[in-house]
Structure formats: structure tokens, C-alpha cells
Design a protein that fits this description.
The chain is of the alpha/beta class. The chain has two domains: about 150 residues, Rossmann fold (3-Layer(aba) Sandwich), CATH 3.40.50; about 60 residues, no CATH class. The protein is built from eleven helices and six strands. A six-stranded mixed β-sheet has the order 2-1-3-4-5-6, with helices on both faces. α4 packs parallel to α5, α8 runs antiparallel to α11 and α10 packs antiparallel against α11. The longest helix is centred in the middle third of the chain and has 16 residues. The protein is elongated, with a radius of gyration of 19 Å.
Length: about 230
């Protein structure tokens, strides 16, 4: 079912995210947020992918925590892939990490500090109502909305590093995708495809993908498995 807004956030910002949902839904704007809207016993990754695809826009509760979250980065990348508009709702004075800046450099953001947050929630509700109704001249402007690309020196090319990409063997990519999917599920396919378009070789590809994993032990094991040569490699 189509929703107006998908809420992306990291767990330490859950209170803010749910306050935001309360304000938006009180203003008649439908929201999807995990774990509230995930069906019991369902595949979390699949439901999140479907919810992003069904949303009209993504609100990213942006903070130091979300800036460092691999899960948030995967959700943002998926929204960009699906051409879903993203509005970072910045609750702390922090600029995007390089990995997020790559995806957010063409987006707009709205400051939600200093506290109290209530006026910022009200401003976001007003802005979204205008955007979702498609009123003329409803682009982000003024009042704390500014382009991220103008503040962080964001990448303007297809690759923030300037890497030309490497012609990988399809069987090798499929093997790496299978290993990655063991940790993060169906998002692995898109992440491998995106990373392969930018990586300069296998080591670079594996290193890029390892950053998507949450723990050092997972990153180490994933890297080790990818480096083991298979028959025919």
C-alpha cells in the first residue's frame, strides 16, 4: 500500500522518530516506520524494501548515530535507486559522512535544532503538505532548508572517488553477492551492483562491501570468504 512517507532512523533516535510520526499522522500524512509497520514473522529486509518503493518520500532523521549506521545508509541508497525523494531532518549539527554524502548531495535538508523540536515538527508538516499536494513552487527553500551539496563539497560525478570501475566476472560477483546476502538479505544484490560500478578491483570491491556490515567480526569473516579462490576463479 502506498504511503506518503517512509521514516528512516537509527535506534538511538527512536523517540524522535516516533514523535515525528505522531505529528505527521496527526496532520493527515501517512507514515511507514519500523518496527511498528512490519508484519509479524515477516522478512524484515523485504518489507523495508517494499515500503521504500511504495513511499512518496523518505524522511531521514539525521544525527551522529544515523550518519554512522550501515542500515540507514542501505535504506538511503535504496531510496535513491528507486528515485524516491529524500529529506534529511537534521536533529544534530552534523554533516553527512562521505558514504552518505554521495547519495544526499543532490537532496535538501531541514534543520531541527536547537530544541525544542515542536516548531520544527510543525514546519516539516507544513512543508510536506505542500510537497505532497504538488502545489506550484513547492520546492525546498528558506526557513532552514538548504542543499547538502553546497555545504559538504559533495561528489558531482557518478563516483565520489573517481574510480573507473572494473570489469568483474559475473560468477565472481554472484559469489560475493551470495556471501553478503547471508548478512543483510536481498539488499545485497543492489549493493554489489553499485559497488562493482565504482570499484577498481576485487580487493576494493570487497572492502567497500565490508563497510555495510555492522560488526568487525562479520566484516572480517566476509572479507576472508571473498578472498578464498574458488575453482574457475
Amino acid at each position: 500500500m502506498t504511503q506518503d512517507v517512509f521514516i528512516s532512523y537509527s535506534q538511538p533516535d527512536a523517540d524522535c522518530a516516533h514523535e515525528l510520526v505522531d505529528r505527521l499522522e496527526g496532520a493527515g500524512i501517512s507514515c511507514w516506520i519500523a518496527p511498528r509497520d512490519i508484519t509479524p514473522s515477516s522478512d524484515w529486509a523485504a518489507e523495508i524494501i517494499d515500503a521504500i518503493a511504495a513511499a512518496r518520500t523518505m524522511i531521514l532523521v539525521f544525527s551522529v548515530s544515523s550518519n554512522q549506521s550501515p542500515q540507514v545508509r542501505r535504506e538511503v541508497e535504496r531510496a535513491v535507486h528507486k528515485q524516491i525523494s529524500i529529506l534529511p531532518f537534521r536533529i544534530e549539527d552534523v554533516l553527512p559522512s562521505k558514504s552518505l554524502e554521495f547519495f544526499l548531495s543532490a537532496q535538501h535538508w531541514m534543520d531541527a535544532f536547537p530544541p525544542p523540536r515542536e516548531p520544527h515538527y510543525a514546519r516539516l508538516c507544513s512543508y510536506l503538505k505542500t510537497q505532497l499536494n504538488g502545489a506550484p513552487g513547492s520546492g525546498a527553500h528558506g526557513g532552514g532548508v538548504a542543499g547538502i551539496g553546497t555545504t559538504g563539497g559533495g561528489a558531482t560525478s557518478a563516483d565520489a572517488t573517481g574510480s573507473p570501475g572494473h570489469p568483474f566476472d559475473e560468477l565472481e560477483l554472484h559469489r560475493i553477492e551470495r556471501y553478503l546476502a547471508g548478512y543483510i538479505g536481498p539488499l545485497a544484490r543492489h549493493l554489489v551492483k553499485a559497488a562493482a560500478a565504482r570499484a577498481s578491483g576485487k580487493e576494493d570491491l570487497v572492502a567497500r562491501l565490508a563497510t555495510e556490515l555492522d560488526t568487525e567480526s562479520d566484516r572480517h569473516e566476509f572479507t576472508r570468504r571473498c578472498r578464498i579462490e574458488q575453482p574457475g576463479d
